[in-house]
Amino acid sequence: MTAMNKMIVGVLRQPRLRVLGMNGKLVTLLAALCVCALDAVAVGFRLPNQDPEAIARGNAFAATADNASAIYYNPAGIAQLEGFNLRAGLYLVSGGIEYTSPTSEHAKVDDAFQPVPQLYATWSPKDSDFSFGLGVYAPYGLSIDWGSDAPFRTTAQEGEVQYICFNPVVAWQICPDLSFAIGPTINYSKAEFKRGLGFFPGDYFKFDGDGMGYGFNAGLLWKPTEKWSFGLNYRYETEVDYDGTSYTQPSPPLPGPTSTYGPLVYPQFVVAGISFRPTKNWNIEINVDWTDWDSVNTIVFNDTAFGDQTLPLNYKSSFMYEFGVTRNFDNGWFVSVGYFFSENSSPDRYFNPIVPDTDLHLGSIGFGHHGEHWSWAAAYHFGYQPGRDVSGSVFPGADGEYEVLNHAFNLSLNYKF
Fold first, then answer.
1. Would residue 184 count as lying in a domain?
2. How confident is the model over 107-127, as pLDDT tens digits?
3. Span 141-164, pLDDT tens digits
4. Where does residue 387 fall: left (phi above 0), alpha (psi -120 to 50 degrees), or beta otherwise?
5. What is the enclosing helix (H) or strand (E) of 363?
6. Coil, strand, or helix at residue 314?
7. Which of 38, 128, 310, 341 is deepest in the core (most CB within 10 A)?
């Protein structure tokens, strides 16, 4: 899964015996790598895949947003829905990432499928201009595990970020062609990071922490004609203050547990989409998605015993370009195909294998059925990057080639009453 974990170079370049003597600073600096979390490989640490009907369209859904997952994709879209809608989904993603060093050493991440649940509920009272919704989903996160034998074990070994967002929204149907929505995001996140130390066989450093953060999202949907619609979605940046404990193994002789805490900013992003329906049976959409990774330049981690430590980060803002087509049939069935391209946001100099960000091509397909009360959808997508060559990274062992081929499935069930 996304993104920005850099600059423990000052510690990593210290002689090993000296590092052992500064456990407070080591704890604080390495905690940064834990909280600066993970994703499926390209989109920083974002997880933009939140519903199979959207995924099948390459996530080009902001200008359509015609089911309860609009709470994530464009909350203004819930104004199109009638009555009560309850939608539950499960996203299963497998990380297929392989590494080859300049000296032909190899490593591969654990590619077991990881589950990510989604839950959405909406209510549009009859004869009211207002609609209400609640989404519970994971817009960031996932995990990565290179194992204990990777060539860069002392830079990155394992990491996991669990992130859950509670997102109530209110949508206002301003006029028949225009709707607007806004709602707070209440976010809980838990982070874990593990890396080798290189002093003893099997030794490691580990951090566990959690925290809360708050923000909001908003959306606008304009449908000037039956054939054209325009959507805009904005999510405000969220800062999560992680509070936890870091420790080493074996201990003793290595330093014992230390209290560690620090903030991480999850950046704002904007999605704009245009949908064209040449007939009632066809929907073609294009979206542009921009994430403000430039806003996350420096993280300050605080150790209660050793003061503050400053970590400069150097991610760059990036775009995703999304395209999708849906064919609807008169009997309620539909089929969709899509593609999107995600730009890399990590420059070579600050590339870290714990978040192996890279340009990524994603193709998708899906189908489903809309019924009077029950609806369902299923989608599959893959991510592909034939190889990113990294050179000049400040992190030991990070240089080399990274190849990506991952797979994901999403299934959802919707009940309308």
1. yes
2. 999 888 889 999 999 999 999
3. 878 899 888 999 888 888 888 899
4. left
5. strand 360-370
6. coil
7. 38
Does the reported pTM lie above 0.70? yes
Assess if residue 4 is contained within a domain.
Answer: no
What phi, psi does 10 have (nearest 5°)? -60, -40
Q: How far, in Å, CA of 31 to CA of 36, rounded? A: 9
Give the model's pLDDT for residue 252: 76
Reduced to 3 states, what is the DSSP secondary structure of residue 372? coil
**Can you give the CATH number for the domain in which 23 is found?**
2.40.160.60
Give CA separation, 194 vs 246, 266, 370, in Å: 10, 21, 45
Mean of the pLDDT values across residues 367-373? 96
Domain count, the chain: 1
Output DSSP code: residue 392.
S
Question: Residue 182 in contact with residue 234, Cβ under 8 Å?
Answer: no
Q: Structure tokens of 220?
A: 């606008």
The residue segments making up the domain with residue 378 are 9-416
Q: What is d(CA 305, CA 241) in angstroms, rounded to the nearest whole number?
A: 18
**pLDDT tens, 53-110?**
999 999 999 999 999 999 999 999 999 999 999 999 999 998 889 999 999 999 999 8
Cα separation of 58 and 403, whole Å? 21
Q: Which two tokens stand for residue 46?
A: 């974002």
Inside any domain, residue 2: no
Taking only the tens place, the pLDDT of each residue in 293-330 is 888 776 665 653 334 555 556 789 999 999 999 999 99
Are 260 and 244 contacting, i.e. CB atoms less than 8 angstroms apart?
yes
Q: 């029950």: which residue's tokens?
A: 374
CA–CA distance, 219 with 75 (Å, rounded to integer): 5
In the structure, how many helices (H) and strands (E) does the chain have? Answer: 5, 21
Number of Cα atoms under 13 Å in the Cβ half of residue 412: 35
Nearest in space to 245 (alpha carbons), one of 14, 31, 17, 2 = 31
CB neighbours of residue 179 within 10 Å: 27
Give yes or no for a contact between 95 and 416, defined as CB atoms under 8 angstroms apart.
no
Distances from the Cα of 129 to the Cα of 74, 82, 183, 218, 385, angstroms: 17, 11, 16, 17, 46
Evaluate whether residue 3 is within a structural domain: no
